Amino acid sequence: MLLRQIQYFISVVENDSFTEAAEECFISQSAISQQIKVLETELGVQLLTRQNRKFTLTPAGEYFYKQGKRIMAELDKIKQETVRVAKAEDQHLRIGYLHCYGSQELSQAINKFTNSHPEVNLDLITGTHESLYELLRNGKVDLVLNDQRRALSPAYVNYHLITTKCFIEISPNNPLSKEKKVTLADIQKTPCILIATKEQQEQEREYYQNTFGLGDSYIFANTLDEGRLMVIGKRGYMLAESTTGKLVTSSNTVCVPLYREAKQITTKYYAFWLKTNSNQLIEDFASNLYQIFHSKKK
User: Fold this and answer.
1) What is the CATH number of domain 90-160+271-295?
2) Distance, CA of 32 to chain centre
């Protein structure tokens, strides 16, 4: 059985016509018809039930069509990756991540990936949620680690990594630190410390005030370390997240579960990438992230 015969069969089924399939495959109608008959003879089964100029798929033909599509898609992938490997010296994987992201999963995934793909150069880009989305949309990064802020788009692979539980990180000298949990109402009058550049501040404030449901008092820091120093200095609180339900902090800060009414708030983290840009390197990196996130839950 030749791969070309599988492709001919797929074309006949998808065009619902031997004539149109022949045109698509640049061969004569009689030739493509003959190739399908040779294929059936080799398999020893009937794939098509012919009636005058029409045909229907037999159950065996339906199965062969679906499996043939899978094989041809996999072959396409092999071809792309073969070319990519041959140009290993030009391989770059551009990863975007939140500049307020402070957990270790990303660094562990990078370490694991570089060990298994030493020929690939990793380019790391930080940004806010919206700036990362724009970079991804414009093809300036290959994959983004981000939380979900908008409806999931079918133009992207939306690879769900983990659902985290939300906390506030606050000074132990703040009365809220003594609570077993706090609600959005409890923190309305306490400033929220956000990590954002001057250009991104308004965008971040709008999201956390209008969509997330925080109050209207915000302080901005340029880095996570700067934000944490503000927390220690009793300037306000920062949002924090945990994959296990608990957070380990230093003696300088305390983490308290954040609730919306009777339920702890959660955040969904995804690896996002354009479907049209999908390749094995991106998938490997996303898989590494998923495995590391879930190893921490055990």
Assistant:
1) 3.40.190.10
2) 41
Contact between 143 and 286 (Cβ < 8 Å): yes
Helix (H) / strand (E) element for 229: namely helix 224-232
Fold classification of 3-86 is Arc Repressor Mutant, subunit A (1.10.10)
Domain 3-86 and domain 90-160+271-295, same fold? Reply is no
Fold for domain 164-266? Answer: D-Maltodextrin-Binding Protein; domain 2 (3.40.190)
Domain residue limits, the chain: 3-86, 90-160+271-295, 164-266
Q: pLDDT by residue (tens digit) across 30-63?
A: 999 999 999 999 999 999 998 877 899 999 999 9
pLDDT band at residue 66 under the 50/70/90 scheme: very high
What is the predicted pLDDT for the residue at 171? 94
What does the mean pLDDT of the chain come to?
A: 89
Question: Inter-axis angle of helices 18-25 and 29-43, to 10 degrees?
Answer: 100
pLDDT in tens, 161-207: 999 999 999 999 999 999 999 999 999 999 999 988 888 899 889 98
C-alpha span between 64 and 205 (Å, rounded): 55
| pLDDT the model gives residue 249 | 58
Q: Which residues pair with 195 in a beta bridge?
A: 221
Q: What is d(CA 237, CA 165) in angstroms, rounded to the nearest whole number?
A: 16
User: Shortest CA distance to 207 belongs to which of 290, 138, 130?
Assistant: 130
Cβ count near 79 (within 10 Å): 10
Nearest C-alpha neighbor of 288 from the set 98, 159, 112, 107? 112
